[in-house]
TrEMBL record:
<protein>
    <recommendedName>
        <fullName>DUF4399 domain-containing protein</fullName>
    </recommendedName>
</protein>
<keyword id="KW-0732">Signal</keyword>
<feature type="signal peptide">
    <location>
        <begin position="1"/>
        <end position="20"/>
    </location>
</feature>
């Protein structure tokens, strides 16, 4: 009996270790690539962006010891900084509330309408990028806003 319980315990431990070592996933679920997106009528011309990740997405500093936990930073047109919130290195992030919804604020762009790339980056509890093979875990989608 002890031997089988120990075997089950070791099997569960190896499953946990293997799962913890899996590369994290991150994708933009909406909008889909190529979508024409209608901008919000608020001053920031906001659009909700939905992400999906294998990480638990919680507010910053709420992950505790969970190493599979973090939040998302977003940049619109991430090759530059023209769409960032003034004085910030990003356009939006979900570190205040966590979850899979992030507000893209196109009103900070020089031109809110037209072709844009939405880029998201997976960050840990301390705002540091999650690295996979030495590169930040990111997802991109190109959309047209009107």
């Amino acid at each position: 009996m002890f031997r089988s319980v120990t075997a089950i315990g070791l099997a569960m431990l190896s499953f946990t270790v293997a799962r913890a070592q899996e590369a994290p996933t991150l994708e933009i679920v909406w909008p889909k690539a190529g979508t024409i997106v209608e901008l919000g009528d608020d001053p920031e011309r906001s659009v909700g962006v939905v992400v999906k990740s294998s990480f638990k997405l919680l507010p910053a500093s709420q992950c505790g010891e969970n190493r599979q936990c973090g939040h998302v930073h977003m940049k619109i047109d991430p090759d530059g900084d023209t769409c960032n919130i003034p004085g910030r290195p990003y356009n939006s992030m979900n570190s205040d509330f966590g979850g899979d919804l992030i507000k893209a604020r196109f009103g900070h762009c020089p031109s809110s309408t037209g072709r844009h790339v939405i880029g998201v980056l997976l960050a840990d509890d301390h705002h540091q990028p999650i690295l996979v093979n030495g590169k930040p875990m990111t997802a991109l989608v190109e959309v047209t806003t009107k």
